[in-house]
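Reviewers of the previous submission asked for a worked example of the structure-prediction workflow described in the proposal, so we include one complete record here. The input consisted solely of the amino acid sequence. No template or homolog information was supplied to the procedure at any stage.
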Amino acid sequence: MRLNDVASARTLLFVPGHRPDRFAKAAAAGADGVVLDLEDAVAAEDKDTAREHVRTWLAEGNQAVVRVNAADTEHHDADLAALGGLATVVMLPKAEHARDVTAAAAVLGSGTGVVPLIETADGVLRAREICAAPAAVRPAFGSIDLAAQLGVDPDSHTALATARSTLVLAAAGAGCAPPLDGVTAAIGDEARLVADTEHAVALGFTGKLCVHPRQVAAVHAALEPSADELRWARGVLAVATTDGAVGVFESTMVDRPVVLRAERLLSRAGLSGAPA
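From that input alone, the workflow returned the following structure tokens.
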């Protein structure tokens, strides 16, 4: 995938790297992009085979993010070596240092990017540094692994709210695109999926990782601004002045920060009036 496409993606759909029969199906499932997974979804004995399947798919001109194995694993270097000249963006799990982001991009070559997957306590605490790495496109949140390390329920919005907010702040401070939220493991629970997505949006996330095609449409719908939000955004822009003077809409002051929020809401909906 192109860097800009990854930066603006609402959904990225995981597919195991050793299952090439699923690659095309995942690409056609309606997600903004797919993640060919060489890490958790692939057993150690299948790593080599998975790399070859992923290489073949990319060499045929198909687009995907590739999740490699973590920098401190025995499989990491082989993953990067296999992807050189083919992958434009890789997802780096257990990201804890900016140097690992930079090193991965250096192996892959000029113009490549990295989605650091922040899923450990050290990763959260160093999120600003990681997001500031020149090759970092946008971070993603690994809620399940972090919850396991912290000993909390991965489904608890309260338990992981600080970590999520830290990641949003880190991305904004570093100038990255806003982060992607972690997966909802309950594939058949659409209500849970929607609640998770809406919670992430409220904190500043603009996309979500998916583990099944049936999750994609529900996530896209949950990411859309409500009709009332769009009405508000249009009203704000209607009274905004080009010289930056303060306006009023529905008895509320409209200044530059309010205008920016309105523009971002319209941008999320793909409507005019959004910032260039």
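The beta strands are 11-16, 33-37, 65-67, 89-92, 113-118, 140-141, 180-181, 207-210, 247-249, 252-254. We consider this example representative of the routine output the project will generate in years two and three.
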